[in-house]
Amino acid sequence: MPYELQELAAISGMPGLYRLVRAARHGVLVESLDEKATRTLAPARNKVSLLSEISIYTQDPDETVPLTEVFERIYQKHGAASPVTSKSSEGELTDFLAGVIPDYDRDRVYLSDIKKLASWYGIVSKHRPYLEAAASETSEEALAAETAEDAPKAKAKKAPKTTEPSADEPLSTGGVITAADEAPDAEGNPEAAAPAKKSRKKAE
Q1: Could you read off the pLDDT of 62-88 as tens digits, one per residue?
Q2: Which residues, 6+ apart, have CB-to-CB distance to 66 below 8 Å?
Q3: Residue 66 belongs to domain with CATH number
């Protein structure tokens, strides 16, 4: 994934974005995503919208695009510097979103949502590092190759003549390698953002 969004959130009544630190008795302790990194308490009455759980509606009612993927598309097309801001014209903003999500739902995604998207991307790309997916995959491939090389060596070792190998003795000490977890960035607009969900097709 390009940017790690799981701990980042937009909070109603509080401008900008925040990193969730920990739960508190009367709310959530958060840290502002800016140069000051100021810590404050977000009251329990304020709505906390996790960026990793926000998606953009498409014209297919069964499909949405997670914000993490939207950010990846923006990065691949424009780099870390977004070509628009929340103050850009309506035409510039709609053209910007259409450039990364051609089939976004024009009826359910409002101009205010595109402004938030542009603002959030600018904040995140400035204060969070972009994680190259290729580097992560290369590390996993190297680890898999290393494990594969170690397995024959472990198998080639001879047991002491006086000891019989047990029936459940493993053939290799190599562990199971799993893919890294992925995730899908102000007050969210419930009409324009929905929880990320897997694409699916209705049964015929």
Answers
A1: 999 999 999 999 999 999 998 999 999
A2: 52, 54, 55, 183, 184, 196
A3: 1.10.10.1650
